[in-house]
Amino acid sequence: MSYQVLARKWRPKSFATLVGQEHVVRALTHALDQNRLHHAYLLTGTRGVGKTTLARIMAKALNCEAGVSSTPCGVCGACTEIDGGRFIDYIELDAASNRGVDDMTQLLERATYAPTSGRYKVYVIDEVHQLSGHAFNAMLKTLEEPPEHVKFILATTDPQKIPVTVLSRCLQFNLKQMPLTHIVDHLSRVLEAEGVAFEPAALRHLAKGAAGSMRDALSLLDQAIAHGAGKVEDEGVRAMLGTVGDEHLFALLDGLVAQDVQAMLEVAKLMDARSLSFDGGLQELATLFHRIALAQFAPEALLDDAERSRLTPYAQALDAEYLQLAYQIAIHGRDELSLAPDDYAGFVMTLLRLHAFGPERSAAAGPVAKPAAPLRQATPAAASAAASVAPPAAIKAVAAVPPAPTSASVAERADQDWHALAGRFPGMARQLAQHCELVERDATRVRLRLAPAHKHLQAHQEKLQQALRELWGAHQRLEISVAEPAGETPAARRQNTERERQEKAVASIEQDPFVRDVVDLFDASIDESTIKPV
Question: H or E segment at 237?
């Protein structure tokens, strides 16, 4: 027996097995069970989401020998013949090749005759928007008042091209694109039933490549099984699709957060060596920025718990305004690839642009310099100023700080040192440090207190431990307790400082004589959201 492709073999044969279209299934199920049947249905949606499949299930539900219901038996003559495409009263018409008025006239003439073996004649017109204007006009009367034994099911990917006179005569159902999680779950079930070994990460790449189409996902799965010689593995799927792996994207993000432009360029070189698509890389990077923004503002929109937990640290690390800018840089960089000398150059320039407009940098700051003296000898104000301009690499050049004595004055100085240091650790270690309060430090131990709201950052404790050992010696052991800080964390101090600067800026504008005269003259008001401190 010849091989049957997965897209055909696993085509749903009942409403219960249809994936991702619950809103349509609910309406059709109720209509069938309550015998409230319309004479014409219009199914809209992109390719591969189940339009023709729904039409076949509807035909079985209407003609099943067990009676009209939402659960056709699937084993009677009518059901098996419809599944096999042999049922004489089920007619599928491709409007792309039968679009003329003569074709429509012949169809309508045959519709007047009673069914041969079924209960209803079911006419499925696929890509109905490609019918000519005269063909649409020819079918209007029959579509509005067809014979009792005729049901029309129209399907289209472009409903805007269908005349409103046709739309008004149909019940319209919009089929949505398949969510990524639905596709992954379905592919997992198919592979388990087929007895094919697979890696879950590989299915996510296939689901992304399918772009919401279950049929495309199953076709790609067929290709992946052949490519992997009977296995579906992550590396093989990425090689087949030419997609940029998550490890590349998150390495770029880590370099961006740490302001390590060399690390970002190394990722670009690796992508070039593996002939990965730079256009696809920027597309995936823009998608990742979009998902991180969702994690910032609407984390409940991320249905995948694993994705939410992985993106949350980046949502904490990247400023919301910069994230919007980064998204724009990525999509515009993709548009400009065709104008670049080559794709590699265009991709690298986009990465440099992301770095140049990083949230922690200032164009007015000038060249970045290392602190002139060890941090323990600086005043608190000087230490804070140094922290704002020192690069992440400068943390390794800071002189070792001896164990802090127990006197109150030196303890206060150690706290000031912590506020300055927290802004100069690399990557996610910096994010964790900035949300921690220094509780105690002795010769062998550093104790920090982390607010419960940021306890997810504790996952990066090992990175901070390593950074502290590089700074204070290998004998240092880091302990972090999750509790409300008794004092002010570096992040809280920065927020308070920014709020005070904003309040002073607003006050200076409100007290400006010229502004007050304009407000009084025009009965105007000041939009405080547009005021930025300088």
Answer: helix 234-241
